[in-house]
Amino acid sequence: MTDTLALIPAGIDTYSQPIVYMNEDCHICRSEGFAAQARVRIDLEGRWIIATLNVVGRGSWLGVDQAALSASAWQALGAREGDKAMFSHPEPAASASVIRAKAYGGRLDQAGFAAVVRDTLDNRLSDLDLAAFITACAGDRLDEAETVALTRAMKDAGQTLDWGERTVLDKHCVGGLPGNRTTPIVVAIVAAAGHLIPKTSSRAITSPAGTADTMEVMAPVALDATALRRVVEAEGGCIVWGGGLALSPADDHFIRVERPLDFDSTGQLVASVLSKKAAAGATHVLIDMPVGPTAKVRSMAAAEALGARLSSVGKAMGLNLALHVSDGVAPVGRGIGPALEALDVLAVLRRAPGAPVDLRERALDLAGHLLDLAPGTVAGQGRGRAQAVLDSGAAEAKFLAICAAQGGFREPGTAAQRIEIDAPHAGVLMAVDNRRIARIAKLAGAPRQKSAGIRLLTQIGDRVEKGQPLYELHAETPGELAYALSYAESQTDVITLSESVP
Predict the structure, then answer these.
(1) Which candidate, 85, 84, 97, 2, places its Cα nearest to that of 40?
(2) Phi, psi at residue 199, to the nearest 5°?
(3) Which intervals hold domain Pyrimidine nucleoside phosphorylase C-terminal (predicted)?
(4) 321 close to 315: Cβ distance less than 8 angstroms
(5) What is the C-alpha separation between 239 and 222, in angstroms, rounded?
(6) Which residues make Cβ contacts (< 8 Å) with residue 106, sequence separation at least 6?
(7) Which residues contact 224 (CB under 8 A, 6 or more apart)?
(8) Which residues in 31-66 are b (16+ Cβ under 10 Å) and which e?
(9) Does the pLDDT of residue 16 top 90, yes or no?
(10) pLDDT tens string 352-388
(11) DSSP output for 185-234
């Protein structure tokens, strides 16, 4: 009998949560008193992680002398099959008392938030601990000072990018609007205009596509800091996945727990956004806030509250921050899903006759506003300059150069399976439910299946006839298409039409 177990990969994706699987008859499991959901420290050749235990029944696939690790645990530990590791109870998380204090209404300083962030990154906190922390901070339970402290703690825990004394422009959309893929267009315009814009973006969390998902259809996005700097120094901009750069890395852990809780927290949203902007080295940041009844920000009152907190925290973080309130009533562009959104982006950059006008105009508005933020510019001239850069083809050329520098451009693919959803009666298209149309696109396979999603065939204000196609479902397999179609047919108010017209 030894005090070690042989490690094997479980082949199970648990996202960023390290999980260890042990047989209930394992001698270490018994002697240490490990039970399901226990926190277990695993030591291997000077490296260690803390994982959550899942217990496997006797006579199953896992031997009593083995321990299986989830994909994230395997990678974090740097394990190789056959390695033997030691298992023990970890020291209690230092931040447990901090979380308890916040749960009982206490105010936290930066040291308290830093302790929570540090223990989160070391996986010393269970999902229950994190859920308690997120709940204690939800709603309006983080004041302005606490939001600043949390933002700084999240930024300081990860890597930061330093661009010297140069002006660094950046933009962010708070989300909730399907198809609103302005970032690649804005980056191309701003970089072509001679400014620095190293854009780090996220993959989809609850949406059918994030900017990184859409960009990945056209070029590699998983760049490290060295490669990112090389691209930006050569082309003035980039569009890469921020998850590979460890910028505010605790945010991914918080989001993983926030998502099923479905809590709205102004403080946590602000800390999430601005910690990453500050870590990326931005000096001037534009925040786009789409407002609409089915967007993330549902009213002007909510937009004003969020904007006020963003502005105050941005100032405390040393950022020159501007706000842009936009229409969030309906999806933007025609495509919803990575490849379909990429096609829209390319159509705008290529000045194609059928390019979605709403996406083009939004991108020009944002690019113009961002150009106006740059020092030495004349206020109000940015929009005209942005349009000139786009119309001349300079933005298209810059986008292709950025793609080449990131590893090479490729044209988006198309889905093999398609079906149209028709209007049940004649009328005028009055509204689109952003959340439900996004859910249909996800059920079709987006964003994991890059060509899956929805192609909108009508817009608000259009008059349609009975039986006229409203939108087209795209999927890569018949099963995914049928799954999405079943939900779409059960939702009669995804797209609202007026009463029949003559």
Answers:
(1) 85
(2) -90, 120
(3) 428-495
(4) yes
(5) 10
(6) none
(7) 244, 245
(8) ebebeeebbbbbebeeebbbbbbbbbeeeeebebeb
(9) no
(10) 999 999 999 999 999 999 999 999 888 899 999 999 9
(11) HHHHHHHHTT-BEEEEEPPPSSSS--HHHHHHHHS-----HHHHHHHHHH
- What stretches of 118-205 adopt beta strand conformation (E)? 169-173, 197-201
- Compute φ and ψ for 366, nearest 5 degrees: -70, -45
Spell out the domains of the chain, with CATH numbers in brackets: 4-88 (2.40.40.20), 96-156 (1.20.970.10), 169-406 (3.40.1030.10), 417-497 (3.90.1170.30)
Q: What is the C-alpha separation between 341 and 332, in angstroms, rounded?
A: 10
Taking a C-beta distance cutoff of 8 angstroms, is the pair 183, 211 a contact?
yes
288: its two tokens: 């786009």
Q: Which two tokens stand for residue 90?
A: 């970890």
| Phi, psi angle pair for 448, to nearest 5° | -60, -45
Query: What six digits make up the tokens of 188?
Result: 């191309």
Question: pLDDT class for 123, splitting at 50, 70, 90?
Answer: confident
Residue 461 reports pLDDT greater than 60: yes
Burial of 403 (0-12, 13-18, 19+ CB in 10 A): buried
Q: Which uninterrupted H or E stretch holds 327?
A: strand 320-327
Mean pLDDT over each residue of the chain, to the nearest integer: 94
- Work out the pLDDT band at 175, boundaries 50, 70, 90: confident
Q: Averaged over 307-332, what is the pLDDT? A: 96
Catalytic residue, chosen from 264, 358, 372, 433, is 264
State the Cα–Cα distance between residues 404 and 188, nearest whole angstrom.
13
Scanning the structure block, which residue is given the tokens 């390319």?
A: 346
CA-based nearest residue to 330, from 499, 495, 498, 500? 495
Catalytic annotation on 365?
A: no
